C-alpha cells in the first residue's frame, strides 16, 4: 500500500469537451475518401468510442459464419507488400518499426486496423471545455509493468525519445494531497443500506509522508466511525488488521501459499478469517482495475501480494508463490519505471506513427508531439513505403499455396461494405487472438483452440469532461472507490503538464473525471465472467451508460455541490469488450500452478509466412509485452 501510484492503485482519468458528434466513418469508408476528409479527426469524437459502432460488425459476422454469404467476390487491389500487419495497436506498430530495422526503410508495409483510429487500446481523447483544452486516455494509461521492461521494450521507449526517469518533472503529484484530498469509498444504499462517502481505511496510492503511520491510524478511526457497515463488521475489520493470526499453524510458508493459491480472497475472508459479509462486499470490486473481476475470482495468494489485509499473522516469506499472477508480485525496479502522458500510451502510438509514415504527425521531438494534430489523410498514401489503412477488418489471411512452400500470403479485408485483397511476402497477426481462428483457417486445430482461449477482459474507460472540480475539493477526495455502483472507480485526472500541454491545477478549472467499470459476473470462473461481461457491453446503449454516469456522479459528489446537468460538458465512453489480455489465474488455470506449456506459447507459434504478435501472445496485459511479442514475431519472419 506504500507503492508509487500506478495503474494498480490509481486508475486515473481524463478527457473533456463540448461537442464533436459521433461520425459514422465506417459508412463512408468504401474508398479512401473518409480518412481524406479534412473533418476526419477521431480523437475529438465523443459518445461511444473504443470499440465504436461499425468497428466490429465484419468480425462478428465472420464469427457467426454469415460473413461470406453476403460479402461478394473480393476485389484485388493489385497491391503487394513485404509485410502486411493485421492490427494497428502498439504491437502492430512496433512490429512495423522492428521490421524496418531488419529489412530496411524501403520495405513496403501495410497495417490494417478495424477501428477509425490507430493505436489499438492506446487511444487519445481530446476535449475543449470553454477555453480549456483537455487531453484524455481512452485506454492504455501509462508506461508501467509489474515486472521490469525487457531490453527490447526499454530500447524502443528510449529510441522514441521518452526519458522515463524524468516523469517527476512533468507530474504534480502533490496537487490533490496538498488540497487535503484523499481516496474515499462510496457505500451505496442498495449494498450497504445507506449512501455515504467515507475515507478509505487503507489508502490506495499509498503515502510517502513521514507521519504515514499516524495518518493511517487517523483514517482507520474515521472509517470506523462513519462507514455504514454492521458493528460486527467493524470489529472484524479491526481484528483483521490489528490482531494478526496464523490461520494455518504448523504449515510451512510454501504450504500456506499453496493453500492460498487455490482459494479466492472472498473465500479466505469468509471461511478462513471469518469476517462479516459487509467486509467482503467492501473489498469485492477492489481488484477490478487489474483483473477485471472481483475478489470472488482472485486468489488469496494474489491478494497477499497486493497487501490486502488478513495475511500478516501467516508470516509468509517474501518469495513469490507458485501460481501468483505477475501483477501481484511486487517489484521495486518495475514500480519505478512509470510514465503517464496526458493521453496515456497514445503518445507512444503517435511517436511510432510519426516515424513510420512521415507527414502524419508534424515535429521531431517528444516535446512537440503532445499537442501536434495528426493528419489522417496521409496515413495511407501510395507514395509512402508504410501505409496504415483504418476502418479495415482483416477477414482472411492465407498462404497462396501450402504453408511450407508458398512465396506469398494473401490478406482479404472488409472495408465500407466491400472486400479487398492485397498480397505480401509475410504477415504478422498483431490483432486479438480470439479473432485469429476465424481469419486464418489453415492454422492447426490445437493452435486455434489456444488462440480462442485468450478471452479478453471487458472494460469501460469513461471520460467525463466537467467544468470544475470544486465539488471534489469540498468532499476532500480525488479518488472514489464505489464497490456497489456501475463504475467501480472515479478519479480526477492525474495532473501532468508536458510539451505545452497544461493540466488543471485549480478546482475552478475544467478537468477530466475518469471512471472505470468492469462488467463482471461474480461467482463464475473468470473467463465466463469476461464473456458475459463482453455481451453486456455490446448490448448496452450509450444512453443507458450516460444515465448511469450522471446518476452515479450525482450520488457520489452531488453532496459537494455537483450538478450533472450544469457541470458535465461532455462524456466519452471508451468501450473495450475486448480489453486487457487474459492473464493466467491459479484458481482456474491448473497449468499455471502445475507448470507445462501455456496456451499463449501454443497460440503464438509461427505458421509458414505468418507470425503472431499482440500482448495476448504473452498473456500479459501490458505495453512492454506488446513490444516483446512484436519483436519475436518479426524475428521469426526475418530469420534465415
Ligand atoms: C482500458 C485499457 C487500459 C490499459 N492500460 C494499460 C496501461 O496503463 N499500461 C499498459 O502497459 N497496458 C495497458 N493496457 C494493456 C494494453 O492492451 C497494452 O498495453 C497494449 O496497448 C496492447 O497492444 P496490442 O497491439 O497488443 O493490442 P491492441 O491495442 O488491442 O491492438 C490490436 C488491434 O488489432 C485490431 N484488430 C483486431 N482484429 C482485427 C482484424 N480482424 N482486422 C484488423 N484489425 C484487427 C484491434 O481492433 C486493435 O486495434 C490497457 C488495456 C486496456 C483495454
Can you give a write-up of this model?
With 640 residues, this protein is of the alpha/beta class. It has 28 helices and 17 strands. α5 (90-103) runs parallel beside α18. Flavin-adenine dinucleotide binds at residues 7, 59, 86-92, 112-115, 120-122, 139-142, 144-145, 393-394, 430-432, 435, 439, 459, 461, 576, 579-580, 614-615, 621-623, 626.
What is this structure, in a nutshell?
The chain is of the alpha/beta class and 640 residues long. The protein has 28 helices and 17 strands.
**DSSP summary: helix tally:** 28
Low-confidence runs: 1-30
Backbone shape: globular
Sheet with most strands = 8 strands, mixed
Ligands, ions, cofactors: flavin-adenine dinucleotide
**In total, how many beta strands?**
17
What is the rounded Rg?
Answer: 24 Å
Could you tell me the mean pLDDT? 93
How far is the first residue's CA from the last residue's CA? 49 Å
Approximately how much helix is present in the residues? 25-40%
Percentage of β-strand residues: 15-25%
| Sheet with the most strands: spatial strand order | 1-16-12-15-14-13-6-7
Class by alpha and beta content: alpha/beta
Amino acid at each position: 500500500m506504500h507503492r508509487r501510484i500506478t495503474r494498480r492503485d490509481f486508475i486515473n482519468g481524463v478527457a473533456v469537451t463540448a461537442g464533436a458528434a459521433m461520425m459514422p466513418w465506417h459508412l463512408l469508408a468504401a474508398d479512401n475518401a473518409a480518412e481524406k476528409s479534412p473533418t476526419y479527426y477521431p480523437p475529438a469524437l465523443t459518445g461511444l468510442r473504443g470499440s465504436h459502432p461499425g468497428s466490429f460488425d465484419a468480425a462478428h459476422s465472420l464469427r457467426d459464419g454469415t460473413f461470406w454469404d453476403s460479402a461478394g467476390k473480393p476485389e484485388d487491389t493489385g497491391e503487394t507488400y513485404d509485410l502486411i500487419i493485421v492490427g494497428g495497436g502498439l504491437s502492430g506498430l512496433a512490429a512495423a518499426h522492428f521490421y524496418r530495422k531488419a529489412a530496411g526503410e524501403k520495405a513496403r508495409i501495410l497495417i490494417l486496423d478495424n477501428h477509425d483510429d490507430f493505436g489499438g487500446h492506446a487511444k487519445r481523447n481530446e476535449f475543449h471545455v470553454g477555453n480549456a483544452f483537455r487531453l484524455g486516455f481512452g485506454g492504455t494509461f501509462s508506461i508501467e509493468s509489474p515486472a521490469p521492461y525487457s531490453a527490447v521494450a526499454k530500447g524502443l521507449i528510449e529510441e522514441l525519445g521518452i526519458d522515463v526517469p524524468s516523469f517527476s518533472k512533468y507530474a504534480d503529484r502533490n496537487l490533490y494531497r496538498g488540497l487535503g484530498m484523499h481516496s474515499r469509498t462510496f457505500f451505496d444504499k442498495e449494498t450497504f443500506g445507506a449512501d455515504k462517502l467515507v475515507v478509505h481505511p487503507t489508502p490506495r496510492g499509498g503515502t510517502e509522508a513521514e507521519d504515514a503511520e499516524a495518518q493511517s491510524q487517523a483514517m482507520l478511526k474515521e472509517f470506523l466511525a462513519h462507514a455504514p457497515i454492521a458493528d460486527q463488521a467493524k470489529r472484524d475489520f479491526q481484528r483483521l488488521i490489528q490482531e494478526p493470526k496464523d490461520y494455518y499453524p504448523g504449515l510451512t510458508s510454501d504450504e500456506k501459499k499453496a493453500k492460498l493459491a487455490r482459494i479466492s480472497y472472498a473465500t479466505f475472508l469468509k471461511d478462513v478469517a471469518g469476517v462479516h459479509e459487509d467486509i467482503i462486499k467492501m473489498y469485492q470490486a477492489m481488484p477490478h482495475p487489474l483483473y477485471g473481476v472481483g475478489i470472488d475470482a482472485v486468489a488469496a495468494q494474489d491478494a497477499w501480494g497486493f497487501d490486502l489485509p488478513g495475511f500478516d499473522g501467516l508470516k509468509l516469506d517474501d518469495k513469490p508463490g507458485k501460481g501468483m499472477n505477475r501483477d501481484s508480485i511486487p517489484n521495486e525496479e518495475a514500480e519505478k519505471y512509470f510514465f503517464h502522458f496526458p493521453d496515456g500510451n497514445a503518445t507512444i502510438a503517435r511517436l511510432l506513427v510519426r516515424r513510420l509514415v512521415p507527414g502524419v504527425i508534424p515535429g521531431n521531438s517528444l516535446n512537440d508531439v503532445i499537442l501536434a494534430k495528426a493528419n489522417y489523410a496521409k496515413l495511407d498514401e501510395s507514395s509512402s513505403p508504410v501505409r496504415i489503412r483504418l476502418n479495415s477488418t482483416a477477414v482472411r489471411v492465407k498462404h497462396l499455396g501450402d504453408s511450407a512452400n508458398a512465396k506469398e500470403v494473401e490478406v482479404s479485408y472488409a472495408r465500407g461494405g466491400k472486400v479487398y485483397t492485397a498480397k505480401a511476402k509475410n504477415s504478422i497477426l498483431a490483432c486479438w487472438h480470439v479473432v485469429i481462428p476465424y481469419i486464418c483457417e489453415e492454422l492447426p486445430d490445437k493452435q486455434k483452440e489456444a488462440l480462442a482461449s485468450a478471452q479478453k477482459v471487458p472494460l469501460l474507460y469513461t471520460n467525463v469532461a466537467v467544468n470544475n472540480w470544486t465539488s471534489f475539493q469540498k468532499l476532500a477526495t480525488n479518488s472514489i472507490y464505489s464497490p456497489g455502483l456501475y463504475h467501480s472507480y472515479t478519479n480526477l485526472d492525474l495532473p501532468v503538464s508536458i510539451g505545452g500541454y497544461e493540466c488543471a491545477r485549480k478546482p475552478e478549472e475544467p478537468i477530466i473525471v475518469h471512471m472505470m467499470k468492469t462488467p463482471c459476473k461474480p461467482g463464475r470462473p473468470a473467463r465466463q465472467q469476461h464473456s458475459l461481461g463482453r455481451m453486456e457491453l455490446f448490448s448496452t446503449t450509450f444512453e443507458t451508460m450516460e444515465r448511469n454516469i450522471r446518476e452515479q456522479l450525482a450520488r457520489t459528489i452531488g453532496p459537494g455541490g455537483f450538478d450533472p446537468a450544469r457541470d458535465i460538458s461532455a462524456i466519452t465512453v471508451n468501450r473495450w469488450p475486448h480489453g486487457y489480455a487474459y492473464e493466467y489465474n491459479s484458481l482456474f488455470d491448473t497449468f499455471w500452478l502445475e507448470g507445462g506449456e501455456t496456451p499463449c506459447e501454443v497460440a503464438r507459434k509461427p505458421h509458414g509466412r505468418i507470425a503472431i504478435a499482440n500482448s495476448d501472445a504473452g498473456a500479459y496485459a501490458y505495453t512492454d509485452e506488446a513490444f516483446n511479442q512484436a519483436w519475436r514475431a518479426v524475428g521469426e519472419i526475418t530469420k534465415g
